[in-house]
Amino acid sequence: MKNLTFILAFLLFCAACSTSRKTKGTDRALDELQALMSGTFTSAAQAARDSAFYDITLHMYPIWPDKGRWLYVEQAVTAMPGRPYRQRVYKLEQAGPQSFRSVVYTLPEPEAFVGAWKEPARFEQLSPEALELREGCAVLLERQADGSFVGGTRGNGCESTLRGASYATSRVTIREGLIVSWDQGFDDSGGQVWGAVKGGYEFRKQ
Known about the structure:
The structure is a single chain. This protein has helices at 2-37, 44-49; strands at residues 39-42, 56-63, 70-77, 86-96, 99-106, 132-133, 139-143, 149-152, 167-175, 178-186, 192-195, 201-205. By secondary structure, it is of the alpha+beta class. It has a single domain (2-205), classed as CpcT/CpeT domain (Lipocalin). The chain has a ten-stranded antiparallel β-barrel. The longest helix is centred in the first third of the chain and has 36 residues, at 2-37. It starts with a helix and ends with a strand. The model is unreliable at 8-23 (pLDDT under 50).
């Protein structure tokens, strides 16, 4: 009986150690993904060599560090930094052993948070529950052997009404110092109505 008790205790200890290792591994991977996505990025170099692309500045900075891995996202034409055309909040989650999910939310009053990437404390007045989930717009990312993360949205479930669109898609590659993001909008017949045509925007970290 004593031997059986010892064996059961040992097995429980091993299971706890395995769970702890998996949790730490997941935390490290999510921390790495968040670090790669955090900072100020610009497409200036791409715009300089190809007039099909605009000079865009992208800010992504962590908020609510005690509530998980959240990023405030602000995107604007570089010449008009005070007039962002996109403001979002992303939540980074584990989706599988080597896969991750960036869940997309909108802010209830985005104009109140323009420039908040410089002052993350401004989000203390807001709770995650106040955000609105963009159904079908989550970006699923697979970790590659070279350490990069590659993926995109799935299907046509990310609703968009911009310029006559019915749905939007995103394809993303994230690696050290670079985020390539290709956002496109399509109408009911599958014709593209907005977004880059030649390829994704190349945002280089500043």
